[in-house]
Each structure stands twice: as C-alpha cells, then as structure tokens.
C-alpha cells in the first residue's frame, strides 16, 4: 500500500471517528437533558458562585454525560459502524 493511499485511509478513519464522537455527544446531551436543565436553572443569575452553589447539579450532569460518552461506548459504535459497512459491502457482492 502506498503512502498516499495509507494517508487517505487514516484521514477517512479520523473523519468517521469524529462523526461517531459527534453522534455520541448528541445522544448524551439528549439523554441528560433533565440534568442540563437543573444545572441551567441553578446557574441563572449567578456568576462565580455557580461553582459552589451548583456543585451537586454539575456532578449529576457530568456523571450522566460520562455514562453516555466514554471509550467503551465509542468502541461499540465503531464496531457497529464496521459491521454495517461490511454488510453493505457483502450485499453488493450477492
């Protein structure tokens, strides 16, 4: 495999991973909407005090987001994507 082709494949893999990360983050924000709202309500009208006044809400939000955005979730999404691509490829062969 030539250097140019290898570079193109690596670039493609990076683009796919970026897209999967974006999809993962979007899903996490949707799933954690209730915690986002609680944190936003707590933060209204505050400046520096938000750090200590909304600590509980921030922790709940971060815990929820971490549940939906971690390496294991990303690896599962990559695996599913690969399986889908293989299925598309084999469907064309039949």
UniProtKB/TrEMBL annotation:
Superkingdom to which the source organism belongs: Eukaryota
Database matches in Pfam families: Cmc1 (PF08583)
Coiled-coil positions: none
Main location: mitochondrion
Keywords: Disulfide bond, Mitochondrion
Subcellular location field: Mitochondrion
Keyword RNA-binding part of the UniProt annotation: no
Signal sequence bounds: none
InterPro entries listed in its UniProt record: Cyt_c_biogenesis_Cmc1-like (IPR013892)
Annotated GO CC locations: mitochondrion
Similarity comment text for this entry: Belongs to the CMC family.
Identification of the protein by name: COX assembly mitochondrial protein
Organism of derivation: Juglans regia (English walnut)
Gene (UniProt): LOC108988030
